[in-house]
Amino acid sequence: MRQQATLESPEITCDHCIQTIQKVVEKLPGVKFLGGEPDKKQVSVEYDPDETALDLIAAAMEVEGYPVKK
Q: What average pLDDT does the chain have?
């Protein structure tokens, strides 16, 4: 069963940041990017926990320079 999550990073400042994160997380198996809100410094994803863990999504963001607020 698919799950939704909202991830927050203080480094998200603009639409370009959202696009960068989208490109990275959509490469992970079972992940669908739902959108982002630069003003709230958040992105939303839908994922299949049988294919990808939320920690892996957060790690992919962090590699690109967007550390996820815990």
A: 97
